[in-house]
Structures are given as C-alpha cells and as structure tokens.
Amino acid sequence: MITLRSILFNTLFYANLILRMIFLSPIYFLLPRKKAYFIPKNWARSCHWLMEKIVGTTFEIEGLENIPKGGYILAPKHQSFWDTYALLPWLDDPVYILKRELMWIPLFGWYAMKQRMIPVNRGARGRIMAAVMERTKQEMLSGRQLIIYPEGTRRPPGAVPHYKYGIARIYRDLQVPVVPVVMHPGLFWPRTTTKRYPGHFKVRILQAIQPGLDPDTFFETLTGQLESASDALLIETARDNPHVPLPQTARKRIAELKGASSS
User: What residue intervals traverse the membrane (predicted)?
Assistant: First the structure.
C-alpha cells in the first residue's frame, strides 16, 4: 500500500507543479513580484494537502513566535526536498541563494527570476562572490528573509553534521538575526527512495540568534543549538512514529544518545 500511495503522490506532486506553472504563468508574470508570491505559496499548501490525503503524513510547526519582523536569515537543517518549499506559506517574502544552473530550467528558472532569487556559481571566488553578497544585502534591505541551509546539501536524519562556515561570514556581513530550524522530514520523504511514509512530525523553530557575535562564536552557537535540538527531536519523532523505517544514520545516532543518557 505504501508503494502505491507513494507512486500516486509522486505523480500528482510533479503534475501539480508543472500544470500550475503552465496555467498560472499569465497571472504570475503580470502581477507585481511580491503579490505574485501567492502562487508558489498556494502550491506549497496544495502539496501539504496531497501528502496528508494520499500518503497520510502531517506536520505541525512549533515556535512561530520566534520569527522576527522584517529581514532575517532562516537556517534550517536540510534532509529532504520537502523542506525546500514547506515553510513558504509562513514566510513573508523569502529569497534563496541558488545554484545558477537551476535558473536555466524552463518555467522554474523564470519563476525564480521573477522573485529575484540569487544565482551563484558554487565554484566562484573573489569578485563574483562579493557581487553575490552585495546583491544579497540589497534584497535584505527591503526586509526579505534569506533561507540558507547551513550544511549546504541534504543530509539523512541522524547523520554526522557537516556545517559550512560560509553562514558565519554571511551573518557577519548582513548583521541580521539568524533563526535556526530543526525537523526530520527525511524520515517520511527520504532522499534516496521514491517511497513516502505516513506519520506525523514537528518543525521546531528556535529562538533567533541576534547580530553582533563574532563569526566563530556565532558558528559554535548555531551548530550547537541545531544539533542539540535536532537530536532531541529525532528521538521524539522516532518514538511517535514506530512504524517508520529508520535509516542506519538515525538508528546509530539514537543508540548513541540513549547510551550517553544511561551512562
């Protein structure tokens, strides 16, 4: 049954994305940029509805009161394609720094350009990265929310963390609050399989780290908070969803945490 539900969900998920892009493009590209954001946000809501009705997966968000007003950096743990779009309905005017190759995708790239997403060549250095940083500053001055995944790429639940120091430099240069976020959608939407699993999980938004720390102190604070909160939420999510198959990384990490608590 899980396999059939997964096939149906995956089919409708991508059909929903493509058809909305095609048929809503005239509205999207005629509207002012920020007003047009309601189309991607409604798409995200529709994806949540599909996942709940077809797969049986639901979620809740804790800590919405921790989101500041105006511009800030959102720094979530990154496990699944789910978390790339899931929080859009709760954000005012988010902006992403994207691989430039994504901007070349028909329709998707055009949508991203409309929202002034920031393309970057990951191999770039020097003046190119300085230009990206300057562009980011300009977007933040208008009160937008920059979404950055501190580990840079998707990591399976419980995996040994691999944080990139670049977020500390961005924090130093932008001088805005950073909001850590933990969640474990990778247990329900794994990155290495097409299967989708039913259950319920939480997205936990932590208190913002205010600007003004030196980069090293900020980096230690951010990574420490993310890992501590992620470990606690992993144990909670696995306990509340005993039917969900845990990847080896999650089983190993839970065993380590239980062993540490009993010693």
Answer: 12-31
Residue 5 lies in a domain: no
Looking at residues 211-229, what average pLDDT do you find? 97
Side chain identity at residue 241, one-letter code: N
Q: What range defines the domain where residue 234 resides?
A: 57-262
Q: Annotate 150-198 with DSSP letters as a single string.
A: TTSS---TTPPP---THHHHHHHHH---EEEEEE-GGGTS-TT-S----
Q: Which residues, other chains included, contact 250 with Cβ-Cβ below 8 Å and sequence gap of 6+?
A: 156, 157, 158, 187, 234, 238
CA 8 to chain centre: 24
pTM attached to this predicted model: 0.92
Cα 93 from Cα 95, distance rounded (Å): 7
Ramachandran bin of 256, using left for φ above 0, alpha for ψ from -120 to 50, beta for the remaining angles: alpha
Three-class SS state of 253: helix
Which residues, 6 or more positions from 131, have their beta carbon under 8 angstroms from its beta carbon? none
Question: Tokens 């102190």 label which residue?
Answer: 217
Position 131 in a domain: yes
